[in-house]
Give the backbone structure.
Amino acid sequence: MDFVVAIVSSIVAKAAEYTISSIINHVKYLSNHQQNVETLKHQAEKLKVARDRVQHSVDAALRNGKEIEGDVDKWLSAVDTKILEQVEKVTQDEEKAKKKCFVGLCPDFWTRYKLSLKAAEEAKAVAELLEQGKFDEVSYPVPLQGITVTPSKGYEDFESRTLVLNEIMEALKDDSVSVIGVHGMGGIGKTTLVKEIARKVKGNLFDSVIIATVTQAIDIEKIQNRIAELLGLKFEEQSTDVKALRLQERLKKEKRVLVVLDDIWAKVDIEEVGIPLGDEHKGCKLLLTSRELNVLSNGMDAQKYFSVGFLNENEAWDLFKKKAGDCVESCDLKPAAMEVAKKCAGLPIAIATVAGALRNKRLFEWKNALRELERPSSSNFTGIAAAYSAIEWSFNYLESEEVKLTFLLCCVIGHNGLVEKLMRYTVGLGLVGGVNTMEEARNEVLTVVANLKASSLLLDSYDDEHFDIHDVVSDAALAIASRDYHMLVLRDHIPKEWSDKAKMNSLRAISLPCPQIIAELPKEIEYSGLSFFHMAHDDSVVIPPDFFRRIESLKVLDLPSYSYLPESINHLIDLRMLCLRGCLVEDITIIGELKSLEILDLAFSRIKELPKEIAQLTRLRLLDLSGCRKLKIIPPNVLSSLSKLEELYMEGNFVEWENGVVDNERRNASLDELNNLSRLTTLYVRISDIQMIPKHRFIETLNRYRIIVGDHPISKWLRRHECSRTLTLQLYTNICLDNGVKCCWERLNICT
């Protein structure tokens, strides 16, 4: 019995010891509450310093084209959450703890105890984050995007091409040769050949291959940006001189690198671009293409150069058969088909366009094509008579005037043009008939582009969202546009029409991709039929205030990156499509007067507030505010007033959505306003909190959406995973699947 009593006494004593110890600890929380709070604040400051240090390393890595380690991204997000939310909450609770209870006679011990306990717990969590933030490296090099290693589309292994290809390959192996040139007339196949060479040498002779197109209007900055893009290098500098130094540094890190500059028309200063050659970097070689041998030998100092000639008769016929289909081997078609093929004169671009247009056609159509190709080429075309004649015939063979005008717009847009931009142009000009929605218009334009590619008038670009076009095709088409369609595109010289008032007044479209060639614009113009005007940004060219006063017929206006809007823009009462992408103007109130607008593109502009006058644009069907990083205010009820809006793009910028009424009056828009937009089918938006998604099932009406919750950097992932319906959530977000989110979740496309 004494033994049992002893055991019980021991247990009681131990329990008392633990109880007393526990009580003491809790009392310490009460007595040390101020110390615990101060410790947390001190730890939080240390965490902020550590966060800033890591962020600086991350920023530097991104500037150098590196990818950020996943655990670093997660740590930064966790730190922001801890500092901005938890620590801030403790600071707010500290003010409550200073208040007294019992009518102010004694301290509020319970509040102080809870505060002290919370501060101690958070201080421990902050200490753990500090320890986790001691990264050896925050980033890793990105494998060069360069070019793909798939077989070059369009390359045919003809004997005449194989001989030249092998000679160029041998020159690339020669350590004493750093600059190699390839020349030949337009449309002969130079670009296709060097792309095949690039594919063959990547991973064998060279670790990396970079291809950049130069074109007739040499733009050093554009060349630099393209090379940097393929290197995974991001520029923050504006000066081309500094960019050149950055490119040199980056290229020198590649042991063996081939840089291809395609379509050179005049001397390009390689040092100004930033390509290190010779003693600067013996592992770097330059491969050039040009129509002119003199440009390569004298301008670019090519040490070796090679000519690409016409296809022989057998090669030309083989290519023609491949493009036109096996039907040309039939007894009735073959004689006419062979004659048509001969008219293409062994020029690949002419063969591709004509054969593509006649694919699977009937005999009478072949005979008619032969008759038209036997006519002399237009006197307006100079240089390549066979190619221009073939391209003109292919153009005339297009099914409708709307398709022809759409193709001419492709030529105005130029190399690697965006299909989306083409769609917006065609809608603005009313070229897509028989469609009721923007989505239907987009599908119509995609179909036209696909058909133009099938006819070889357009080419594939680096993805399905872009198209490309051969220079020879573009030149011929723009000559047709000027002659027959009253369209003027000023690229490298000022034509006679520019000073001919009568001819200028008859113009339907003007595009100025290189406005610097013009001394100045007229103060006021009167083009009664002008429906399209585009002018690239150039600081040396000023748009006079009254420039647009007397061209009320204008339907499409594209003024990218300009720092002001002429006052006369409010006279464009029939304007349907306005593109101010990259605009530096902060006050765009005047746009509210353009009541006929259907498409408004303000992407990447500097606006801080969307003016309330935008609510007057009741015909607006598409609003693009993507990348407007300074946009902080969208007045309430502006978006809900756009009753015909079908597509809204706000990705990557505005997150100041309000959830209900704040202080009895909302300052900003609410996502609930979108419930009033019964025609809305496309929504790209970023929100800070998933609870902002409307509880109503408005998402059921959306065909395409990209809803990003939180501020985690996922743009690179999205570029790799093209989905029509995407909902992206941060993992630490508290998720409650209400009706709105459930509907969104149910209709997701799963991308892997």
About this structure: The mean pLDDT is 79. The chain is about 40% helix and 10% strand. Residues 24-141 form one domain. The first strand starts at residue 66 and ends at 68.
